[in-house]
Design the sequence.
């Protein structure tokens, strides 16, 4: 009775002021966050001259798709899309398998030596060999110019391993595991049939983390890949922008330089949209798992 009366009680003036202040503050923050992305979108469809002049800020002007035509007329872009999708799918699958295979036994309290192993794994978060030793290992393994060079050196993220391990420890009751063993369940069957179905939130979060990392990665390809047919999308987009900027700097004709500058401006925004759109579409699909997976995996314990 007291609960229902308190819920229906009129709110004080201070509470209403607090709510209004929160709404205004959060609305301002939302606009600050969303507007840069919105501006990139409208600028990519606007006349580059107007964008450079600062006349485009609320809606597109002199709508044109010339920048997108230039992006997709480049045959290398389709090769890059094919490669980055392949690298992202295979890389994320390898990441999930290895991270799960590492996190599950480390979460088991009956696994001898798990604390010492976890200490050694955590040590690698703070100390590493560096780029040159890593390159030498990749070279000696014969992975140069192969998909393995982009996937295997970073196959397991220690941070993601810790998140998944903590999730298993705090979410999967030990009583469930014990009852499964009493029914004759093997360790692999327990992981496949009980643990993984109960761990979809953290798996979704790991999928998002790893997939976005593979999609946006270009530095590994810059180091290990020299065959253009194996370039990921980000390498071609980087090359497209750099080449346009170089032409702009090397061309001595002032009129051509101005024209190149306008082309580069529109191309820059179109490239951002083209490279970001698939990842932006992935976020809403996994959003319902995101907060739960991160909070349970990273805060508890």
Sequence:
């Amino acid at each position: 009775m007291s609960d229902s009366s308190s819920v229906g009680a009129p709110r004080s003036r201070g509470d209403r002021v607090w709510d209004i202040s929160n709404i205004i503050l959060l609305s301002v923050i939302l606009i600050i966050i969303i507007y840069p992305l919105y501006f990139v979108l409208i600028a990519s469809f606007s006349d580059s001259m107007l964008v450079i002049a600062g006349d485009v800020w609320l809606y597109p002007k002199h709508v044109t798709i010339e920048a997108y035509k230039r992006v997709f007329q480049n045959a290398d872009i389709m090769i890059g899309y094919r490669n980055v999708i392949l690298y992202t799918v295979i890389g994320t699958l390898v990441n999930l398998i290895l991270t799960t295979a590492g996190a599950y036994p480390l979460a088991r309290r009956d696994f001898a030596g798990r604390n010492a192993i976890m200490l050694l794994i955590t040590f690698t978060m703070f100390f590493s060999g560096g780029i040159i030793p890593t390159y030498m290992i990749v070279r000696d393994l014969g992975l140069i110019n192969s998909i393995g060079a982009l996937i295997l050196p970073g196959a397991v993220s220690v941070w993601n391993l810790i998140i998944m391990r903590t999730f298993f420890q705090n979410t999967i009751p030990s009583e469930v595991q014990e009852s499964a063993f009493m029914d004759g369940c093997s360790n692999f069957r327990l992981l496949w049939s009980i643990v993984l179905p109960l761990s979809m939130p953290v798996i979704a979060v790991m999928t998002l983390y790893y997939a976005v990392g593979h999609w946006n990665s270009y530095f590994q390809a810059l180091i290990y890949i020299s065959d253009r047919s194996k370039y990921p999308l980000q390498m071609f987009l980087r090359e497209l922008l750099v080449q346009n900027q170089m032409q702009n700097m090397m061309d001595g004709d002032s009129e051509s330089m101005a024209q190149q500058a306008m082309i580069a401006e529109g191309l820059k925004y179109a490239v951002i949209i083209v490279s970001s759109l698939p990842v932006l579409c992935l976020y809403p699909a996994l959003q319902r798992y995101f907060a739960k997976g991160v909070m349970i995996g990273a805060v508890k314990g």
